[in-house]
Design a protein that fits this description.
Blueprint (H helix, E strand, L loop, with lengths): L2 H5 L3 H33 L2 E6 L7 E4 H5 L4 E7 L4 E9 H8 L6 E6 L4 E5 H6 L3 E6 L13 E3 L8 H4 L9 E6 L1
Parallel strand pairs: 1-9
Antiparallel strand pairs: 1-2, 3-4, 4-7, 5-6, 5-9, 7-8
Length: about 180
């Protein structure tokens, strides 16, 4: 009767369970560590500037530093909210002039979720493109799609050229790459 107990090894299920628990703990730990580092990285009032920067190196630039370039405030029709909203920030052409190398021909902006848009030089020369650093006069966090976003101050929903730019309205910007 007890002879079969030796054959039924208790260590096998325990070691499988222990390995599984250890694996779950490790995966959970890595997930939360990444989440914490991601949250602190993107919740700060900074944006990473990369690529052909004026300084020649990657740098984290605060929203306050960006605002010093030439802060503008605009009441802009937001097609997603279907109303006018007060946005403040700097125009993309001024941002490129300040933080990009003179050879920059395009700017790639990346959101927290990895969504990317690219603006060619002709676009920021033809359209006013606003890098928003304040919403209704205040800094805004991730819950409000911050810390920065892109809007087109002259947006008119009746014009096809503006409707074609809707995919380039970007929020939760974490990196600006000059190319």
């Amino acid at each position: 009767m007890f002879g079969n107990i030796d054959h039924f090894s208790v260590s096998t299920p325990v070691s499988r369970c222990g390995g599984s628990l250890l694996r779950r703990f490790f995966v959970t730990f890595v997930f939360f560590a990444a989440l914490v580092s991601w949250t602190f990285a993107v919740s700060a009032d900074t944006i990473r500037m990369t690529g052909k920067t004026a300084s020649g190196a990657e740098q984290d630039v605060t929203l306050d530093e960006i605002d010093l370039i030439g802060f503008v405030a605009e009441r802009v029709y937001n097609p997603y909210e279907k109303r006018r909203v007060r946005y403040s920030g700097v125009l993309l052409d001024q941002l490129v002039a300040k933080y990009g190398d003179p050879s920059v021909k395009s700017v790639k902006l990346t959101a927290i979720d990895g969504y990317r848009i690219t603006f060619e030089q002709a676009e920021w020369q033809e359209f006013r493109i606003l890098l928003v650093t304040k919403l209704r006069g205040k800094r805004f966090d991730l819950e409000q799609k911050g810390p920065a976003r892109i809007v087109f101050p002259d947006f008119t929903p009746d014009e096809e050229v503006h409707r074609a730019k809707l995919p380039k309205w970007l929020w939760m910007i974490q990196e600006i790459r000059f190319e």
